[in-house]
Amino acid sequence: MPDNRKKIKRITWLTAGIWFVSLFVFLLYCKNAEKVSIWGAAAYGIWNLFIFTAAYWKISGIVNRVMENVDHCIQSLIDGKPQQKFSMEEETLLGKFQMQVMKLYHIMNGAREAEEKMRKEMSEMISDLIHQVNTPLTNIQMYSGFLTQDDLPGEERMQICEVIDSQVEKLGWFAEGFGKTMRLEEDVMQISPKYQPILPMVLGAIDQIALKAQMNENEILLRGQQNICAVYDRRWTEEAIFNLMDNAVKYGRRSSPITVEMTAYNLFVRIDVCNWGDIIPKEEYNKIFTRFYRGGNAIQVKEGVGLGLYLTRKIVSEQGGYVKVGADGKKGNMFSLFLKKA
Description:
There is one protein chain. By secondary structure, this protein is of the alpha+beta class. It is built from 7 helices and 7 strands, in the order H-H-H-H-E-H-E-E-H-E-E-H-E-E.
């Protein structure tokens, strides 16, 4: 669309030019005529009125069309179907105005979509939690009813108490895992990746799991390049590495080694956590990273509710990295965490 300022300028100059020509003609008429008639003066006045009225309506029409386009542009944003009414290639005020309004629309729309996505995820998470918590609560209620029987043998009473205790412990795991998930959801906008060495973070995760690994007679072997750096958030990434090593202890063979290896590539830094144990089937590779999913190997272990790997993937993906799983030869599983190198 042509620049409306140029249009208005042309109309103004054209009107001024016509008026000067009219004035020159009228002055010639006055000079040559012995006496200026009232009709001549009236005709000159009417002609001037016509000139300026035509210029006014022309400029008014241009302004009205511009305001209509501005109104349509804003209304299209309100309707969620943005339309460009002015050229964004030309350096005009209307083009700049439209560009800024479009930017504001996309910012607000992106924030709204992010909020809706977070609300949906939170709703799904709460629904999953309620579904998962119902089972242990039902078991506790059922077995508590058995304890009210006076003729219940002492041995069976003890077994029922152990079942109730295990269900209460499971509720504790749910609360801990869900609490971490909620904290991650709250802090996700505050995750602050920065360029730093990865060795202190890996050692921090090893310190957290060391006692549990020692009780299971697992030796943790640290290998690879130890002087490399990556871009990551120290607190949350340490939690992700801990979750991988915690799974390696829980689902690995007793007295088997757990290997943590660090490797630098051109774009990413890779951290592998390998254990000896039952190999995860390939058809479960994607499922194990979803909330509350526990595979065929995992359900044999009492501890855990299926939130560790979900948290790990979410933490890493929020920092521009990714996590993958594969078999470590024929002896166990290898979880690989990739962090951006720069």
